[in-house]
Amino acid sequence: MFYPINFKIEDVKVTIIGGGKVAYRKCKNFLDFGALVKIISTDFIDEFNDINEKVEFIKNSYKEIYIKDSYIVVAATNNKKINEEIGIYCRNNGKLVNVVDNIDISNFTVPSYVKRGDLLISVSTGGKSPSLSSKIKKELEDKYDDSYEEYIELLGNIRNEIIKKYENISERKKLLNGLVNLSLEELKEISLNYFK
Ligand SMILES: C[C@@]1(CC(=O)O)C2=NC(=C\c3[nH]c(c(CCC(=O)O)c3CC(=O)O)Cc3[nH]c(c(CC(=O)O)c3CCC(=O)O)/C=C3\N/C(=C\2)[C@@H](CCC(=O)O)[C@]3(C)CC(=O)O)/[C@H]1CCC(=O)O
Ligand SMILES: NC(=O)c1ccc[n+]([C@@H]2O[C@H](COP(=O)([O-])OP(=O)(O)OC[C@H]3O[C@@H](n4cnc5c(N)ncnc54)[C@H](O)[C@@H]3O)[C@@H](O)[C@H]2O)c1
Fold first, then answer.
1. How large is the average pLDDT for residues 60-79?
2. Is the pTM of this model over 0.90?
3. Given the CA of residue 29, which atom of ligand 1 is nearest to it?
4. Domains of the chain
């Protein structure tokens, strides 16, 4: 079983071994959340050329030295034995490791997710069906569209004002619980009143 946590990885060093489709997808995800990514691979697919963020590319085969200073490691080569070796080294050295072809060695996996500003909805099937995770994600993308980015921002701002203004915890809670039943337009109205 995997436990869900929200991990602050801004400026945390992440090393990915492998330069294929799976490594590319993981790389994009980590960059989305502000990590410092280094990639070691004997070859890289062309998609890597279109990455705008800063990534350190090392064209070489895997060596232990490359992951010594990384707290988070993804083993994403197409060589099962190398992936396993990376996984075991990381487990023995207190690192977080995602072995893309071996859930038993992995001590974390990457879920599907929908991100709308600070709203983050993630889906995992414990490795039983990545396809189902992806399908559920697509359903959630329709339900929680782009407008939620502004919605969550307004909720956060108004919540801060309510916390400042109301000391009584049960009154506070009632107000905060009620906010989520309002539409984006209604929140905008309230926000104008709070911040005028
Ligand atoms: C969610 C997502 C995140 C991401 O990678 O970004 C993700 N896999 C995605 C897609 C996907 N992966 C695969 C297919 C082909 C169809 C299929 O297999 O269903 C598709 C679908 C497609 O490509 O359409 C093949 C596959 N996946 C794994 C193995 C190895 C194995 O099972 O041992 C194999 C090869 C099996 C074989 O040998 O054929 C393993 C893992 N894949 C996970 C995550 C973790 C568990 C997540 C969970 O608990 O659900 C876990 C355990 C480890 C990890 O990678 O963290 C991303 C969806 C992105 C999105 O759309 O949002
Ligand atoms: N977790 C997932 O979501 C998922 C999805 C599909 C497949 N997989 C598994 O992930 C593996 C990788 O998939 P892919 O489509 O990215 O494969 P791929 O063949 O496109 O890429 C493999 C990469 O590993 C590199 N590589 C191989 N040996 C290396 C070494 N010793 N050192 C450094 N780099 C090395 C290659 O240069 C290549 O860039 C597959 O074998 C499959 O089992 C996982």
1. 97
2. yes
3. 6
4. 13-110 (3.40.50.720), 111-145 (3.30.160), 147-194 (no CATH)
Model ipTM value? 0.95
In terms of Cα–Cα distance, which of 58, 61, 57 is closest to 42? Answer: 61
Q: Which ligand is nearest to the CA of 47?
A: 2
Q: Is 122 in the pocket of ligand 2 (CB under 6 A)?
A: no
CB 96 within 8 A of CB 108: yes
What does the block give as tokens for 23? Answer: 């490594």
Ligand with smallest separation from the Cα of 124? 1
What's the token pair of residue 191? 């926000």
Q: From the CB of 99, is ligand 2 less than 6 Å away?
A: no
The span from the CA of 123 to the CA of 125, in Å, is: 7
